[in-house]
User: Which sequence fits this backbone?
């Protein structure tokens, strides 16, 4: 790397950060990509890891391997903790990295709406560690139920509550239902796994509230067909010990359960707050940085915020959704913007090209909203499968996932049903 070339520092090796780095492959810049993990994670399939369908390595790839042919990129496995905007430096736990252009793409974390004390009892699903922890809790609940002597204890152990009816919650609830009804059906002697209760709790009046009403209705029918109890218009008031308190209107009830999983909200990573403090930028209620039309911070054209961490209004004035296509398109746009600046060219404002939304409910069941075209059932599931396979990084990952999914489709098997760690349900 040359000391005289433009220095681009990218914090975050997710969809946006990786797309930005790859988009600058032919640019006369030196890139430093910083991530606290050494791998890129395909987050949309984390629920498959959490329910034993896939292993973490199936949906991950080492960042260095992805970028090893790109000579203008250096990778640092380290955690960014702050910024010195005046001197244009990223502060790491150990050391600092100088930049001419900063790209922040660190994603989101779980949001418990002022109840952070619920997190130990109701883990969310954003990282490999989250997924393996959830997998352990789910499988351990069945193991403990096999040993339990009282019917009350068994019922609590076999009750699973998923909070949040967005795509993650729907996919997670459907996968747990398939695990209980099919995969584990003949694995135990003293309990019937198919008798497990899976409840999906959503505060609004329908699941998948960002989708069209008819697709939400189709998703709810598919979930009900899998045996999931869908509770819309219902809020969580308390998560403590082995109990969750639910409220629907004026009616409240306590539910005994050992497994509560959180898919109800997200909040920008803490680095967004740090950068907002340094630059005087505004953040929204979810902690996301409000950016200009070109994804830069107001008054700081040298700093871009991409993906889930940024608030950028789309059609109708609503912020763009925190999904992989938005992040990847913003990453490619950021690369083009940086290259255009170095060449003295102007760049039009970022425009998201929405090619549709998909959510899977279970085996051969999904919903797809492609604008004028909408599909449900098997065809939507095939679309979802094809698109997700194509988004996976690396040929080997695609082949492995395709083979495992083909096997599980015909056998209902989930080969990664491993309990790791020492936690209790």
Assistant:
């Amino acid at each position: 790397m040359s000391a005289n070339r433009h220095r681009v520092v990218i914090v975050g090796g997710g969809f946006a950060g990786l797309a930005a780095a790859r988009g600058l492959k032919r640019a006369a810049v030196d890139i430093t990509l910083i991530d606290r993990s050494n791998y890129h994670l395909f987050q949309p399939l984390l629920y498959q890891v959490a329910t034993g369908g896939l292993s973490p390595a199936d949906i991950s790839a080492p960042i260095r391997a992805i970028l090893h042919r790109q000579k203008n990129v250096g990778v640092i496995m380290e955690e960014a903790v702050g910024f010195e905007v005046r001197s244009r430096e990223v502060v790491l736990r150990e050391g600092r990295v100088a930049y001419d252009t900063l790209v922040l793409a660190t994603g989101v974390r779980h949001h418990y709406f002022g109840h952070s004390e619920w997190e130990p009892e109701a883990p969310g699903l954003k990282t490999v560690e989250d997924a393996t922890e959830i997998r352990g809790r789910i499988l351990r609940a069945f193991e403990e139920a096999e040993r339990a002597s009282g019917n009350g204890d068994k019922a609590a152990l076999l009750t699973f509550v998923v909070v949040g009816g967005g795509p993650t919650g729907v996919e997670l609830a459907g996968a747990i239902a398939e695990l209980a009804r099919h995969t584990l059906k003949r694995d135990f002697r003293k309990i019937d796994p198919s008798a497990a209760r899976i409840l999906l709790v959503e505060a609004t009046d329908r699941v998948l509230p960002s989708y069209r009403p008819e697709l939400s209705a189709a998703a709810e029918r598919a979930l009900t067909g899998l045996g999931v109890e869908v509770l819309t218009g219902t809020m969580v008031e308390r998560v403590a010990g082995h109990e969750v308190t639910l409220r629907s209107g004026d009616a409240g009830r306590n539910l005994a359960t050992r497994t509560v999983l959180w898919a109800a909200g997200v909040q920008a990573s803490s680095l967004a707050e740090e950068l907002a403090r340094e630059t005087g930028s505004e953040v929204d209620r979810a902690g996301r940085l409000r950016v200009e039309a070109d994804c830069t911070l107001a008054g700081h054209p040298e700093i871009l915020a991409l993906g889930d961490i940024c608030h950028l209004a789309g059609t109708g004035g609503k912020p763009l959704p925190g999904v992989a296509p938005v992040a990847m398109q913003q990453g490619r746009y950021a690369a083009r913007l940086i290259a255009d600046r170095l060449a003295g060219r102007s760049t039009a404002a970022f425009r998201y090209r929405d090619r549709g939304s998909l959510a899977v409910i279970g085996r051969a069941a999904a919903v797809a909203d492609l604008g004028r075209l909408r599909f449900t059932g098997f065809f939507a599931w095939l679309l979802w499968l094809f698109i997700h396979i194509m988004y996976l990084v690396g040929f080997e990952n695609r082949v492995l996932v395709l083979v495992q999914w083909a096997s599980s489709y015909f056998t209902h098997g989930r080969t990664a049903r491993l309990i790791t760690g020492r936690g209790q349900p």
In short: The first helix runs from residue 15 to 23.
